[in-house]
Specification:
Oligomer: single chain
Domain TauD/TfdA-like: 115-352
Helix content: 10-25%
Distance between the termini: 20 Å
Shape: globular
Organism: Halomonas halmophila
Family: Belongs to the gamma-BBH/TMLD family.
Number of strands: 24
Protein name: Gamma-butyrobetaine hydroxylase
Strand content: 25-35%
Keywords: Dioxygenase, Iron, Metal-binding, Oxidoreductase
Amino acid sequence: MTASGKLWLSSDGQRLNLDTQGHTREFAALWLRERAPDSATLDPRTGQRLIEAAELPLDLTLESAELAGEHVALRFSDGHATDFPLEALVEASTEIATSVPGRTLWDASLAEPPRADFAAARQDDAALLDMLENLHRFGFVLVSGVPTEEDGMQTLIDRIGPLRRTNWGGIADVKSVANAYDLTMTQRGLEPHTDNPYRDPIPGYIWLHCLTNAADGGDNTLVDGYQAALTLKARDPEAFDCLTRVAPGFLYHDDTTRLEGEGPLIELDSHGRLARVRFNNRTERVDALSADELERYYAARRAFYHLITSDELTVHLKLDPGQMLIMDNYRLLHGRRAYQLAGGVRHLRQGYVDRDSTTSRRLVLRRQLSGQPSQEASA
């Protein structure tokens, strides 16, 4: 970026106006002061604020502002002076037009799943970053070359973050067993769903590792929940709106555990962008809302269900031994076809890794491999 712009202060000094490329942005003096990118305001190592922002005077003003090369030099009425990178100010005030920034939407026409090699990702930071970037962009990645041992995925998990332990333990079996504690442990087909919406926090990423898969059936189905949500918004805006407003509950219980959560099937962030999808017919419990509201909700849920079970949006694949799916549980809906054990065995292992450690690893690797300063890494 070149410094082809101009600055001016409001008459009371409480606003900075920045004009670049014909677009004017306005910044509050208080915002600029508490976000000042200098070592007196932010800890250089962690980026944590060293001042108490709530104690800054509400009548704080800017005494001067000057465009100096690629930086904006500011002096405040409390005597503090700082330099802002011009690019940082432009980025901070630029609205993101897309509902899914940084993501690639897909449907049944996806020609090739994003792939990664287990050994490469475990040994090489660039390969690990490529795997994590694909996971972020597409919502899933197919990893090959995983050791066909019960905890074969563990060494790659250790490269990213701690394994999330639940009431089911750490890495758990996914195979047909007697007295199953969850429907995944049966031979029935599973409708598209997200995992564990009754937990707080909901597990961020699902790691599904195939040890053997010689049973008849049991193919995995994958649906991009963001694509489904935006397709619903385009075709039935009222249904989309309903599923962002109504927040059903979700319940799981057994002899030793009771877990409850709630949230809309389509969740937006504070900017109106897609944040996550939930769909879990097995555990959903919608409240006894008014009859009119329930009528709208049931119709909207049905419309969404028809999309996520449609051939239009569904990708099919069958895991081979030594392959593993890593799936974004805030975005991806996954299921499977029913399977029969006669003459074959289907044994998968599953674990969870949370979003914070996964996102942190991706952003830190991106910064380290690009040589960016830590504060410039972004999602």
